[in-house]
Amino acid sequence: MFKSLSKCNNTEDFRLLAKSRLPSPIFHYIDGAADDEVTIRQNTKSYENCDLVPNVLSGVENIDISVEIMGKKIDMPIFCSPTALQRLFHHDGELAVGKAAQKFNTFFGVSSLGTYSLKKIAENVSTPKVFQFYFHKDRGLNNSMVEQCKAAKFDAIALTVDTITGGNRERDLKTGFTSPPRLTLASLISFATHPMWALNYFTHEKFELSQLKDYIKEGSNLAISVGDYFSSMLDQNMNWNDAEKLRSQWGGHFCLKGIMSVDDAKKAVDIGATAIMISNHGGRQLDGSRAPFDQLKEIVDAVGDKIEIICDGGIRRGTHVLKALSLGAKACSGGRFYLYALAAAGQKGVEKALNNMHSEIIRDMKLMGCKKITDLTRNNIRFRN
């Protein structure tokens, strides 16, 4: 078991440190996925079926790994995908992640189920920001979130389209995980065995879902599982017309998060989206669904010249990023790789995770004989099958 941040050299190291510092229900919320958790494993395993073919003698002392995505130039080709409930993992939550992303000038995603207001985040974080939009039954809430994004000058909205109902997250059923944490005998024992987490949680400002609390009590004042929240609060009749209207109402860069098929990628182009995130929600929704990396080629071939494509999910190494970019992704994003680090050590943890990824990408680019991201092409990858 790793006990110090300095010894965290990869995502698994951060995972082990997070596991030692979080109460069991909260760790397993980050770590778990749907049903038999086949998809979460495949998300990473899919990269192992693809090999890199390096070139040499390319003069690679100076490397540029910047990319432009959703109207912003970022200094590394991977960013922090939006994730919910961050103050459960560390009391600084989104502020810690945003400030870490700012040091690397990369996009920072904020969830509808975020735990600091967009106003406060905007006041403290200047790096490019994307708001992940959950389409609720309550149209007043939906309108409010758009207006909050405009007031806080967010750079893009990403509508999540793969949570039309909650996934069957059996680890959460076993541990009884809810937001906010429900006080039971089992949870109290878990809190007592992680006193530093409990001290920070109960002595800092009250946990809330800041964008939702004025409209919905569930999640802030009434305990509910994330799966139940999706199933009861989100609009299961959401369709392409709703997505197009939201894009028009927002008026800025607009992304669809959770696209997995060519047909849907083409529809995203038709409604005028700036970007799509190829994603299966980190394996937390439909278990047995295809891995984003496995779907990347056919989607790039279909619409890669018409829309920006972000590969989201399963990324644990810099080489994974290079493989996705070689196949045609414009950028990559991930959640767990920085969430484990947030839980392990707050802002310093996220900075270390981003620095690890940044260093790996630079080193691997040099080993590939590539000076800039556009040097990565399908010529330098091969699939084993």
Question: What does this 3D model show about the protein?
Answer:
It contains 15 helices and twelve strands. The protein is of the alpha/beta class. The protein has one domain: Alpha-Beta Barrel (TIM Barrel). The strands form three sheets. An eight-stranded parallel beta sheet has the order 4-11-10-9-8-7-6-5. Strands 1-12 form a two-stranded antiparallel sheet. α13 (292-303) links the parallel β9 (275-278) and β10 (308-312). α4 runs parallel beside α15 (336-368) and α12 packs across α13. The longest helix has 33 residues, at 336-368. The mean pLDDT is 96.
Number of domains: 1
The assigned structural class equals: alpha/beta
Helix count, per DSSP?
Answer: 15
The main β sheet shows up as: 8 strands, parallel
- Biggest sheet strand order reads 4-11-10-9-8-7-6-5
Overall pLDDT: 96
Q: Name the assembly state.
A: single chain
Summarize the structure.
The protein has 385 residues and is an alpha/beta fold.
Label this structure with key terms.
385 residues; alpha/beta; TIM Barrel; two-stranded antiparallel ribbon; 15 helices; 12 strands; globular
Show the helix and strand layout.
Elements: H1 11-21, H2 24-31, H3 38-45, E1 50-52, E2 67-69, E3 72-74, E4 78-80, H4 93-103, E5 108-111, H5 118-124, E6 129-133, H6 139-151, E7 156-160, H7 170-175, H8 185-192, H9 195-203, H10 226-233, H11 240-250, E8 253-259, H12 262-270, E9 275-278, H13 292-303, E10 308-312, H14 318-327, E11 331-334, H15 336-368, E12 381-383
Parallel strand pairs: 4-11, 5-6, 6-7, 7-8, 8-9, 9-10, 10-11
Antiparallel strand pairs: 1-12, 2-3
Helix pairs in contact: 1-15, 4-15, 12-13, 14-15
